[in-house]
Input
Amino acid sequence: MTDPQFPEYNTCQVCPRDCGVNRYQTTGYCRSTSLLRMNIAQLHYGEEPPISGTNGSGTIFFSNCNLRCVFCQNFEISDIGQGKDISLEELIQSMLELQNKGAHNINFVTPTHFTPHLRQAILEARKQGLTVPIVWNSNAYERVEVLRTLEGLVDIYLPDLKYASGLFANKYSSAKDYPHAARAAILEMHRQVGMLQLADNIAKKGIIIRLLVLPHRLAGIRESLYWIHENLGADTYISLMGQYYPTHKALEYPEINHGISHDEYMEVAELIDELGFTHGFIQDIGSTSDWTPKFRS
Output
């Protein structure tokens, strides 16, 4: 069985896994079929300040994921796949309803494995009156060739940069090529949208890179910051996340079965200043929503 509307699913190579499976007949590594699966659509107030603003971000969480992060805080959605299958028309209606509620943007969370659907949804929603920016909130495990098909459709990229080491990327997320793939993806995202642009303190276009501090420096944030500084520049918006806590399968790994220390966190925060990054946000340790504008302006 094939479908001319979304031929990418016939031999799926939507993400760097390159499964090659026919998602009209079976599931890919992401555990997804050709059916669009959504967990929830809601106004979200806990994203970075220019994303949530005062009215909230129109956040749509998609089920399943192309990574296997053992510490995923949304594992019920990403790993177990909680949610419901929906039509493209239902997704578009959700987007328009969130805009009507005052959302500053439409925020696609974990969208990568449904890129063909979402590309079409953005086009159709705009025909039906969608005017707010589209946020692509992803783990950055993306294929550059696929990201290029989103040029002009996505306004704001909000990628993670989870690891600098393929060894740890493989151990904790089953993706040894993650550093290479994510860096290439972030370069492409930046090429498309450039530095973050604000209007009345609300993001309109650009990129914010998220860095989650893991215990024992396992994320390699120091190396990632040097890479960002060298390749994108010190004007890049950085979002330093202190919300790590052991959940899902993290308790099976002694080195990450506890939270991060104050020293581990401050080491990274101080390096951000030392490198001269001028924009970004720092999240309090243990918080999932409190953001402080921390860098020089």
User: Anything to note?
Assistant: The chain has a mean pLDDT of 94. The domain at 30-293 is CATH 3.20.20.70 (TIM Barrel). The CA atoms of residues 158 and 212 lie 13 Å apart.
